[in-house]
Amino acid sequence: MIEGFHHVAVICGDYARSKAFYTEVLGLAILAETHRAERDSWKLDLALPGGGQIELFSFPAPPDRPDRPEAKGLRHLAFTVADVEAARDRLEAQGVAVEPIRTDALTGKRFTFFADPDGLPLELYER
User: Fold this and answer.
1) What would the DSSP string read from start to end of 51-77?
2) CATH number of domain containing 18
3) PROSITE patterns in the record, alphabetically (predicted)?
4) Closest CA to 98 of 116, 80, 82
5) Does one domain contain both 7 and 58?
6) Is 106 a member of any domain?
7) I want to staple 42 with a disulfide (CB 3.0 to 4.6 A). Which of 29, 58, 68, 124 is the partner?
8) How far is CA 105 from CA 39, 109, 111, 117, in A?
9) By residue range, what is the domain housing residue 52?
């Protein structure tokens, strides 16, 4: 039934700030950018390597996401990287706070977490 992963939709609080974060800090390419006047909303389609996408939405006055401890629903987004230390260093050089690198007890792979401008947990998981 399922043939692959298509996209994840993210609602942001400050469109310009989130657009800069996902394009300039994370380096995702813009596929399309659409202003939907009837909704006072922007939609930004961003390309992920391998064909997936992130759809970044803005809406007037969206509610804050639940804080930690974790709530039901989407837990985090995880991105594959070749070298978790190099990726962490790149993020930190751009002022992004990154948690200490840990090792997954089940796979032996290294990973770390950071957050987007709205506090959405993002993970870097070493290939």
Assistant:
1) S-EEEEEE-SSPPPPP-SSP-SS---E
2) 3.10.180.10
3) VOC
4) 116
5) yes
6) yes
7) 58
8) 45, 8, 11, 29
9) 1-62
